[in-house]
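It is worth pausing here to work through a concrete case rather than discussing structure prediction in the abstract. The textbook approach is simple: state the sequence, then state the predicted structure, then interpret. We follow exactly that order.
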Amino acid sequence: MEKYKILKVTAAEYVDGYCLMLSFNNGESRVVDFAPLMQKGICRKLQDVDYFKSFSLDHFTVDWHNEIGFAPEFLYERGMVPYQSSQHSTDAAADTPNSFLTTR
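Step two, the predicted structure:
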């Protein structure tokens, strides 16, 4: 990750279950599974899928009704790099470090 003074979530999209695809101002995206985070305190509200889907973005992160928010750095570190399939996944090139890139 390239150094930025403040890491920000720039876009969020519901994926499935309790997962969101988050884009960050460093140009990277991560899929974050919030299920393990909703076992205590106010985060239990996120167990309601309709409430979970009602997220928005504030100036720096994903937010639920100004009640629940997580630091962008925390979300970035928890998130998984999304898998991007390649048309040539059976080619020898698929074994290279760049095989996660989508080809034309």
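Step three, interpretation. The first helix runs from residue 49 to 53. Helices lie at 49-53, 72-78.
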